[in-house]
Amino acid sequence: MSGRIRLVGGSHCSGRLEVLHGETWSTVCDADFDQQDAEVVCRELGCGLPVEVLGAAAFGRGEGQVWSEELQCRGNESQIYFCPTSSSLKHNCSHDGDVGLVCAGIRLVGGSRCSGRVEVLHGETWSTVCDADFDQQDAEVVCRELGCGLPVEVLGAAAFGREEGQVWSEELQCRGNESQIHFCPTSSLNHNCSHDSDVGLVCA
Question: What is the pTM of this model?
Fold first, then answer.
């Protein structure tokens, strides 16, 4: 995990954005933060794609300084440290304008932005999901969270390749109307599952 940025007041992948400048954590002004900046923050934190950028101190007002720089990321940088900045903020910004960010706790790997092997962030570790425990309702929530269209196909048997590392030990039990899998109930798996059964998903 990066030591230069953090999300506060939510989870590892959601919260008020704070940037370490010298030895001081500063908040970031919502008027100066866009989708490209969000993509770099989510990437640097090891999270999924940005789901939502929230202004007006949605995760609470910070304390201390508001960062005096404006990020001008292109969106492909690995860390905000590599993004150009401009010190010419066009306006004063108070903690009422602290920006918040929600990054996805899920990603699709090995296909495109809207298709691939389903991987879920648990703590700071990405795990695959067992095909036997993944249904149409789960697929609807994954596609929605990633900003894709409706699910076209759920593919079992590691259709997008076998991953190394962990298979998630939980079974998603989404109703299908949740905005993020974070809000779906889960239960413990009642069987063993290997990477031969990594589930894949194609969203429209």
Answer: 0.74
